[in-house]
Protein 1
Amino acid sequence: MKANSFCSTQTGGTIPINVSFEIWDATDTNLLASGVTGAITETSSPKWEEYGLVFETLSSQNTVILKIINNGVGGCGNDLAIDDIEFKSCGDNVITTGTSTSNSVSLCSTETPYNTTLTATPDFSVYKTHFYQWQVSFDGVIWNDIAGETNASLSVSISMTSVYRAKIAQVAINLNNPQCVSFSTEYQATVTTIAAAPSLECWQTATVNTSTCSWDITGTQPTQPTIDCWEIATFNTTTCSWDVTGAQAIAPTTACYETATFNNVTCVWDITGTQPTQPAIDCWETATFNTTTCSWDVIGTQATLPITACYETATFNNTTCVWDITGTQPAQPTIDCWETAAFNTTTCSWDVIGAQAIVPTTACYETATFNNVTCVWDITGTQPIQPVLNCWETATFNTATCSWDLSGDQPGLTFENELELCDSETLILEPETGIANPLYLWNTGETTETISITLSGSYSVEITGSTCNYETRIFNVSVAETPIIDSVTSDGNDIVISTENSGNFLYSINGNIFQPNSVFYNIEGGRYTIYVKSQNCSDIVSQEYLHFYIPKFFTPNNDAVNDSFRLSGIEAYGKSQVSIFDRYGKLLKFSRNGSFDWDGTFKNKHVPTGDYWYVVIIDGQKLTGHFTLKR
């Protein structure tokens, strides 16, 4: 009770609190229990006190009446507050013990099943009679009744960690009412699982230690016996003993001048003695030790002078005892892969023969590239794979565009076309459709089948038919690039054209036949007009070009192919001069300011197969090199 300062100053002190509690049966005629708090005096700060009493209900009674009576006299401070009125089951203090009067047991798994008898011993402080129901828990939280175990004792066989207790009531029927029971103390059984038996050596024994719940290993490996240096001791796990093997090394075979003695420290035979010193010999001689006479035999003859090549010299070397051959074969000249170089031991020089294979005919998707490694034309490229078709489509390979053209339209689909508009020209947009009796509606508002345009952009038309079929055709129109020639060059006998910009360009060197490839192969020397145009436009740009090249070989065999060394196109230059020499510098042919064609003769006689040198001067520019004449 908190001190009341007002009552203290006005009346000289507060009245102590005194309360009686009475428990009656439901009829309010039988007093079951009563109690009095006595005088509760005031304190300087609030203080809660707890009071209670024990009562026993009558048979079949499930309700009670609680009466609280204020015994204090009236006056200042006779006030009280009550909180937390609680009714709960109350029973004896019941102790659970095992056979050894302990309330717990710790076991190793090797000691299970462990049999014991648990006994619940009440102190009779509350109950006059006792009814039991034993329970078990394997986690200390969830408890399960043990069927049929309703005596004060319980016989158990323990194989795993578990907890046991007895549920107790004064009347048997109350065992099923959680509000009318109490519980004994718990009996804790802890079982530790022992590890698997360890792997043992043959001399070891494993014993279970129940105190530590582990394996104790005892035993010692037998001592290794003393052995000689040539012996080996190996422990035999089958017989659990040492096996000794080995034999002294056999005395080695010795030379006529040697003696063998066994060494017990190094366990090997020591060989002493020295072979007689070998006598001095010439480099071509061989000294062989004769074990019969125990002396050196000397044999040998100086090496025969070797046969040498036309460019070699042989000199005997007393240091290396061989003939030193000096001189180097003339270096093989650089040859193309189609040529073969054979060394001529008569002239002591290299003969070169061979001709490059002719360029094969290729398809539009193929490219022929000469392979200097395999010395053949490699043809690369694969025909584009036919696309997967819908049931309404047909695919046709177009050798002009080198691609598959698809035809056939799906009803209701949208089709796009990419078109180019040439500069200052009018383009007619004409959609193709399989719809019967079609009607057209362009995004320009026109309803004609075709429209004419002069500007780039995106144009579309919706096409409908009498059977409700429809489709949309889109034309994406861009302005075609006008080609700008950047350069024209000669690569051997090929003419290569390059443009500053890119587009769908076609190329020609005669103004009649155009091709998409900007390289023209195997072109005769001379003056040409180069033409370039956009594939879909008529505007053509052109440029004059003088094509001149020097052949690398010719074959004067009257087969109408490369029969002469001809400098095509040189006649187009203002000033020119050509000189042909053999390997020794002899002038064989000379020409000035005109065409040049040499048939491989000198003074009406055929010159032999081989390399020849040229000096060509064109408008002050000097060109030198060599070419091959092949017969």
Protein 2
Amino acid sequence: MTDDTEIDIERLDEDAARTELARLADLLAGADAAYHTEDAPVMSDAAYDRLKRRNAAIEARFPELKRADSPSDRVGARPAEGFAKVTHAQRMMSLGNAFAPEDVSAFDTSVRKYLGMGPGTVAYTAEPKIDGLSLSLRYEQGELVQAATRGDGAVGENVTANALTIEDIPQRLTDAPDLLEVRGEVYMSHADFAALNARQAARGGKSFANPRNAAAGSLRQLDAEITRSRPLRFFAYGWGALSEPLAETQMGAIARLKALGFSTNDLTRLCKGPEELLAHYRVIEEQRATLGYDIDGVVYKVDDLALQARLGFRSTTPRWAIAHKFPAETAWTRLEAIDIQVGRTGALSPVARLTPVTVGGVVVSNATLHNEDYIAGRDSSGAPIRDGKDIRIGDWVQVYRAGDVIPKVADVDLSKRPEGAEPYIFPRKCPECGSDAIREEGDSVRRCTGGLICPAQAVEKLKHFVSRAAFDIEGLGAKQVEQFHADGWIAEPVDIFALRDRYGSGMQQLKNREGWGEKSAQNLFAAIDERRTIPLNRVIFALGIRHVGEVGAADLARHYTRWPAMIASLDAARPAMERHLKAEAAVLAERAAAAKEGRRARVTDTRAAIWAEDPPLPAGARAAWEDLVGVDGIGTTVAVALVTAFAQPAERASIDRLVAQLDIQPVEAPDTADSPVAGKTVVFTGSLEKMTRAEAKARAEALGAKVSGSVSKKTDLLVAGPGAGSKAAKAAELGIETIDEDGWLELIGAA
């Protein structure tokens, strides 16, 4: 059901918008479950689409209010009770996106750089990106034994009975590997979609909004006979688990899948380099309207499967593939105001409030303005952008949307600038707490210095703490964090784990709140208790320390392995960090003085003098600092942020209170029983010729070694390529074993 008394979006204030987003999330979640899971729609497509557009428009106007369970980020629903869950043998990954030719060139450059190859040496495949539903088909001894949807990438739904009704999916294969997981896309052609809707209308049934929704809803029917009656098709484009390789190349593997009886896309081509990729992209784009099925871009993949294996994966995307999306839509509208939002790290982010305009089928009322330089018409180095045109309130601006949650202001029409429009002056005070907002040298962002006294930072840090990659507490998302913080229930992370005890039984207080009952309260407290035991890397990331992302948190966890060891090392490193900062400040001053006097700067002497100052550093301080800075992927910027965060009395006390409630699990070491480098600290230096530095690091860590960026007494092995300099000299001075790249490959059995 919908509300006929909905308030116009432009009249909503922040509190009303928050309430409305909660209402829409509940309505749309119920509609999704009814349609996708129960096959019993509770509203028309038109009503559903209107609610989705309203939700998107409110999020566009109030991006800071976007919920963790936003309908904008949801496709379908969780697995139905009627569908068994399937854990994929190999995760079904998503793809990174490219939107412009330079993005494609950057992708090619990143591939070649990772592989250590020169220009023009990598071949790629290019194929249409089907706008459908991803499906994984598992064949054992040539027999289709399981079909599963993507789900969240790790776990999907078992839709085997439904997949057996799709004519494009073979039930038996001959001359196939004993184990073969075929990955592809279920879709519906335009002609079949129109015919389905005509049949639905003729019998008074539900019409579908578009072919993708029709395909997704049809595949996820609990009654396979309903799926059989729907004209679904399937394109194969990849694979998961295999008992033996299909071919040596992507093109060869696709040809093998076609020979096995799968439908593959005839527009797939082999291309050499970015220019050929872009040429085929234009060919596909020109044919888009006549293909007879929906596509939303072109997918590029490295053709050589051995190179794909070397490139590997990031956390959620392969390094060897990217989706080049079709051009985003743009529109012109009026910039009504510029608002400043404060994030969890204190960053002041400017947001453009716009006269609502439809861009790419979505009503847009706000857009990001990035930072104060972007508003002023320059990049971080001071070079002009948009031909130097600044952005002012009242301007006629071009809005660009390319699949991002928040659209962007791309350009300004100076011919329509109103008289008297003044340049925008970026605030020097935090709009939330009034603290100074400073911009550090080299940083493009101005930040509030209020820290814990800034309410915006407190709430955003709590939201980050419960985010998916952090503690991920079921039932405690952004909405609940805001609610509990506003009511004084939680002010810092440890309060989450004291909820049950702090409020009497906890249950009595919570179950009587609006939107809560006894069961939901029990579930929340159980979910909180479940997260008392948590891996070290998640704790590090959850703390929201500036510059420490998921990858950095994982690097630190692998290096220190246990919380007490990390804390002891960070505490020990503090005096050395302060000496380091003093030395760097002195070096900058010396360089400035030398430039003014026309002489050569005495950088080495200046730095050495500072480090040798009295009083001497405590025992182990410099070693702890160098150990931290030497963690591959960390460096001085992250190290300073870490040590500084743990050195702040209020923040440290808050962290200590939290840790007392937790059982922090050490990182799991890889199975390195036969590894010759397990537990050793390895440093790579110089030019590696048979693998890139990133490959070398990944291989070493997989074998249980710690990879450091600097040589110290703790270093066990230095791998030195041509051009090795100071690190090789220091290793020789310390008597550390040094081998070349061939020696390293022989040592790890990869020669």
Protein 3
Amino acid sequence: MTAIDRRQLFFSGGATLAFSPIAFSPLAAHAASGPGPYGATPAPRQLAWHKRQTYAFVHFTINTFTDREWGYGDESVSLFNPTDFSADQIVESAKAGGLKAVILTAKHHDGFCLWPSRYTEHSVKYSPYKDGKGDIVGEMAAACRRHGLEFGLYLSPWDRNHAEYGRPAYVEYYHNQLEELTTQYGPLVEVWFDGANGGDGYYGGARERRKIDGHTYYQWDKVREIVRKNQPKAVMFADSDMDVRWVGNEEGIAGDPCWPTWDYTTPYSLEKANAGVRGGPIWNPAEVDVSIRPGWFWHADEAPRTPANLLNLWFVSVGRGANLLLNIAPDRRGRIPDEDVAALKAWKAIRDQGFATNLASGATVTASSDRGRAYAPKNALSQTTTWAARSSNRAGAWLQLDLPKPATFDVIRLSEDITKGVRVDDYAVDIRVSGDWTEIARHTAIGFERLIRLDQPVTTKAVRLRIISATAAPVIRNVGLFRLPDVLEEPGIRRDEKGLVTLRSPAEGVEVRYTLDGSEPSAASALYAAPFTLSDGGTVMAVARRATTGVVSAIVTQTFDVSPARWTVVSTNGEKAADLLAGGKFVGPNNQPLEIVLDLAQNYNLNGFTLKPIGQNLSVDEITRMGPPAGYEIWLSADGQNWAKEWGAPVASGEFSNIAASRSEQKIRFDAPHEGRFLRLRLPHAVQDKPVIVFAGLGIITR
């Protein structure tokens, strides 16, 4: 069966194109004049998923205790021993942030199981936690029920511990574990299947690379059958062939537009995942997964995002019709850290305050047309009723709100009734100023919910939604106008490869104050006006401040190490040596390891190095051929002549965890400091067995 055949079979019940006749009922007179579904529409489980909007990921396993992002699979079960685990505290933390569900990593790539699976000894059953009588999955499921949150589970297809991974026996094992998880822990709202599949691993002691075909190896038809049988209301997440798709990045940003529809007639790409497919025959909305900290698992040297930053992520995910899956990571106690909880609570407080009053309430609503009383214009103000324009009224349709009194707002909320499909393409929002209409926003795609955040508040007594283009007559509900509290996101801090530091203001008319001496910036600190040099490293602390109101952002701190401004490339087999230190696209040879020798200009006591993966600016052809490096080997020398036994054992070797999906800078710390001026880096192969290695920059860690 082809991928598209499987998808259409899987999406029976409303997720593919469906034009069902309307059965007779007492409301037949209204229904007959109402709009029928247009194009793809969501299945009931997908509609429930859309209404969830914002929920929590929880990454917790042996990695929490090894300070890794990906476990290799050889970790001892004795390492898993949280000192004060509290499922209630974790769930209450999620609830404090307004998150409506929790998805727990029951098994990550290292293969350690957070439940006492009968099919393996590599589980919590053989760990010190509760003397082997604990069940993290069961405790989390029960805590969610106590606190009114829904529950879901992540089960990694890849297992770097299992001896049979890559062979048929592992697939049976995986199906057995999925059967356990979907039958033992009550209702699940989502089952999450990660896209990382195959590579280096322990594999029962084999310590080798194993490659599988991710499309066929796991027998996804059987996987779907198990979930559908045991958890019919749960959506499934994966790169493709499931209810919900990946948004194509781990930065928390949905496309603009981000269509909830999909097809299998055009090639898959990260850009396609981010944007969706307008008019696609399959309902397959995007889920935006991002972590509150830089890593997915807890690391002591990382800090959580600020409430203002979380608010911005919410607007570029939920505000674009996607769902936000925000990761919160328990520490080694087995609790969400206090600073993370504080950020979650403050984030929710901003949203609660900003959306407490709908300034559109009480408006007189008129429209270009309607389909009768059941679809009257005033219905657009409700979350349960809709305004529907006549079938002939597509482009040029409009909806006007005349407010009881002038209102000041900076957020506009719009929704389509997605049970009738996605109908609106391009649209604008106008306000009346001194008797004339002025356009304040123009966008593409509404979908389940669109939140338009204006750069500055506007004041008016009349607002108009104007449909510029639509594939079917619009069906609109839930129009709202809101005023956020004055919250500033922290400034952006960036340093280029020449050591030049640039500070970015979060909004027009907002000043940035900064310090370089470790003191907290204030209104009296240096005012940023132009880039400055910080080649040898240092700490920049900055704050955004709206001078007219005195509102300030959270303080952001960025510590820089030595820049590559004085470095030289001694040798490399990459394509352009000059590009290696320029922060651009550095490309290795075809089907060969990439090797680099650098002169750092002086001796340093090195604690590690950094590697910056390439961003999303690769062509379709390059994406098929190129990928970031999967692993590394590194040597150091004081003179460039005497290396460790002439390329003997490297000072460090390992893998770049999660580099294929997360394009954030990789930081590799050595087990102990090593002195050297010359650095030799060998990158054996690219991720996903692509023939060419590509990345965007190197750095060193001396602090």
Protein 4
Amino acid sequence: MRITPRTLNLGILAHVDAGKTSLTERLLHTAGVIDTLGSVDAGNTRTDSMELERRRGITIKSAVVNFCLGSGDSAVSVNLIDTPGHPDFIAEVERVLGVLDGAVLVVSAVEGVQPQTRVLMRTLKRLGIPTLLFINKADRRGADDARVLREIERKLDLPVIAMGRVADGLGTSAVRTTAFGEGDGPFVRRLLDALTTHDDALLASYVENEAALSYDRLRAALVAQTRRGRVHPVYVGSAINGAGIPELVEAIQELLPAERHSGEGPLSGRVFKVERGRGGEKIAYVRMFSGELRARERVPVGGAEAKATDVAVFDRGTLEHRPAVRAGEIAMLRGLAVVRIGDVVGRVPDGRPDGHVFSPPSLETVVVPAAPADSGPLHLALTQLAEQDPLIGLRQDPDGRQLSVSLYGEVQKEVLQTTLAEEYGLAVQFRETTPICVERVSGTGSAHEIIDHDGNPFLATVGLRVEPGPVGGGVVFRLEVELGSLPLGYVRAVEETVHTTLRQGLYGWQVPDCVVTMTHSGFCSIRSTAGDFRGLTPLVLMTALDRAETVVHEPMHRFRLEFPQQTYASVSLALARRRALPGTPTAHGEAYVVEGHLPADQVHGLERELPGLCGGEGVLETAFDHYRAAANPRTRVRTDHNPLHRDAYLLHAHRRM
């Protein structure tokens, strides 16, 4: 009888250049999936399949590969997902987090905890994803695993347990590691201290009779607490020479929550990646949580029904075409023509994160084709790329003359430019990168229009009041009219149009947090349609918004900057030029550390300027933090027909009607 192995969907995450892809190669080699180790420098790794990834030596798109650890009843089938490390591609990481059972966070033994390391670990903790840490590159000159372990405890604020150390050869290709175990008294003491913090029963047993507390019980507690994300075992080694890898492999197999699935239960899965095949067809990557999806079976996908014409499952380094995909597995599905990233297959998975887990892009740029005749093909190409990365946020003005995309940073822009050139044959230029602002309502404003009064051409009466809402509260729609005074379909038409209209406020930016109350309603029972309410609502809402007034707010990043004390004057001037709001510097040895806030559009410029200011010794960490009122508010080009200009808006509305 064939034993169904336990399945573990494992993410490998790290700051760029921590050796994440090299670790993936080493795990594949250890599991026997590949005979020869690939190299990032040589551009022949298994998971960096894009030509652009191979040339640049960075991961841009997530990749999936399967391997098996162990045998018999203890075997674990691992779907390993290699993710980008560069912060410009954080959206690719975001989509993966919702399908993981566990993660390995890789930290360089040389560079230590980096800005992206902090962002990733905070998110893993918030989502409750069980995580092991691996201090990599112990073979590199300048490696210091003890220092990095202290950084992990301090900077990541984690309850960690060091499971081994470098035995000899630190910083050389001959590095060797040793694992802590039952006979190591200091290790057992540290293990006991960490585990009893979260386990009252274990603490009580220790207090009653320390000698009777077996190592097997401690190990079982370590397994349980790691799987619940309460403690984080830390391993050390080198992906290049294999030091520490056997211990990490054993930990993946034992400590992370692999489960044995069946095909029973309701159909439930999620699409976390979409790409295009050679023929232009969509290929959807789906993690199944329960049930079974069979080829050529019609299933609910993203609120509609679709048929997967082909099912291919990742299995031991290959793609295997199968009649069905079951719970726990990851499959590539063809035939889902309208599928999008984030779509649910079947019912919504229980207890899985949905929506954004990282901050949205805070920058955007206008994309201009080198040849004016390429405007149409450029729009098509960007539309297809937005299917693979929804946070590209493609925008086009009503006349189709200007296309803009959202960005996390300049590297993403360079990759987009290269992708358009090599995959679509389109030469493009980018205009200046600008911040993506928001508008906040500053007062209260009301407006209404009544059927057959004051030039209202719509067979509808709509009255709306707009007032500020709490930051982070979103757009809240309320009714102040009597229930039943308006058919539910018309109320929904007004509510949906309110949300759509507020994507562009008085200055063209989204209005994210406000309360909109419907104060007037009316309709003609014979002739009114939902279209009348959709057409009238933007006019009323924008009039009310104009009376309430809005203030443009720009995105601000929180920053931490460490620099040599002798460069204090030049660094202070640079921060002032870039409109930073720094706090008081504190001394850390021979360096100063200053924390504060910096406009999002100034981050890249400061990053480029810093090496020259600090002789290459400055370290800058940034992350989106909040929005603040802009001193010089920018206006954004609108993509709608501007209900603030009544005559032009009505002309367009009449053409549609």
